[in-house]
Amino acid sequence: MSRISPTISFDAPGKHFGFLRLPYSTHESAYGWIPIPIICVAGAAGPTVLLIAGNHGDEYEGQIALGELCRTLDPADLHGRVIILPAANYPAAMAGRRVSPIDGGNLNRSFPGNEAGSPTEMIAHFIETRLLPMSDCAIDLHSGGSSLQYCPTIRARANPDPEIMARTLTFLRAFGASYGCIFKPLAGENRTMAAAAARCDIPYLCIEIGGGGSVGREYLSMMSAGVRRILIASGVLKGELDLQDETRILSVDGFDNYVYASESGLFEPLAELGELIAAGQPAARIHFPDTPWREPASVTFQTTGRVLCRRFPSLTKRGDCLYEVGAEA
After folding, report:
1. CA pair distance 82, 225, nearest whole angstrom
2. Which pLDDT score, from 0 to 100, does residue 88 have?
3. 257/253 Cα distance (integer angstroms)
4. What DSSP state is assigned to residue 105?
């Protein structure tokens, strides 16, 4: 059971707007609740697609795209149901922060959650125990947020079930991003929504587009169009599937696919988004404004592949992620 209760029905036909009521007692509001927006659009009988944005509150493209979709989606055009959660970690979304200002919770590191835990844990628990089990696939809209920039990439967690993997790749190619990335979780990470979807045995995609704490019009248009193509590919939305250019499939298998800052200082990038790089190639220089007579520290790429994302702010600390690289699958 979840302490979160929806104000809408997921079974009634038509379009329904409402909230997930998350009980939250504070000094200012003894019997208050956090209103997490949720929308359900249901047409004729068919599968269910779960669309989520605001998993991280400083990733804006998906929040805007799903807001537009919920206003324009017509139940008459559906063979099935679309459940939309456009600001999943609502406190984080309202603060424009990656994590919740209430409990410091990173929703995408909080699954399977806890029905009696912190607000972020309660949200994760509701998604994993209520929303994912009623869905036939889940699409999670992300961007690089405040600290990263992504070239258009759609990510899928490797799944040992061939049927789930085949459906996942169908949806991945339908989205039409420049790059499709099949990733293995670092250090066996099992707290993400990707891991939650795997436990529920449904296809899951994480869309990574843009970032830098802002919204690009081209990226927003790409996000919106790609989500609609996935809805068509799933059989939920009527229409012809207009496939874009072939998506290049890459893989991210471990720590060698990432470049981390070796020192604290100012990050000077030596590679651009989408650039083809080689193992051993210089990736960045770290400059030291407090001791400018020191030679900058150099870091290199550990694998050959394509630059999928890079750090956005120049000011960086030892251990910050500077790049992610996708290798040819």
Report:
1. 16
2. 98
3. 7
4. -
Count of C-beta atoms within a 10 Å radius of residue 117: 16
Mean pLDDT value of segment 281-301: 97
> For residue 60, what is the DSSP state?
-
DSSP letter string over 16-49?
EEEEEEEE---SS-TT-EEEEEEEEEE-EEEEEE
Class for the domain spanning 5-252: alpha beta
- State the CB neighbour count (10 A cutoff) for residue 329: 13
pLDDT digits (tens, 9 = 90+) for 56-67: 999 999 999 999
Separation between Cα atoms, residue 272 and residue 38, nearest integer Å: 37
Q: Cα–Cα distance between 207 and 62 in angstroms, integer?
A: 9
Could you tell me which residues are beta bridge partners of residue 41? 15, 82
With contact defined as beta carbons under 8 Å apart, do 232 and 166 qualify?
Answer: no
Provide the 3-class DSSP secondary structure of residue 51.
Answer: strand
- Whether 120 and 107 have beta carbons less than 8 Å apart is answered as yes
Chain segment 198-227, per-residue pLDDT in tens: 999 999 999 999 999 999 999 999 999 999
| pLDDT of 235 strictly over 90 | yes
In the chain, list all ranges with CATH 2.40.50.100.
Answer: 257-328
Residues 6+ apart with CB under 8 A from 217: none
pTM: 0.95
| Residues forming CATH 3.40.630.10 domain(s) in the chain | 5-252
Pick the CATH number of 257-328 from 3.40.50.300, 2.40.50.100, 3.30.420.40, 3.30.1780.10: 2.40.50.100
What is d(CA 269, CA 39) in angstroms, rounded to the nearest whole number?
41
Main-chain dihedrals φ then ψ at residue 294, nearest 5 degrees: -75, 145
Q: In whole numbers, what is the pLDDT of the chain averaged over residues?
A: 95
Sign of CA dihedral 90, 96, 98, 101: negative
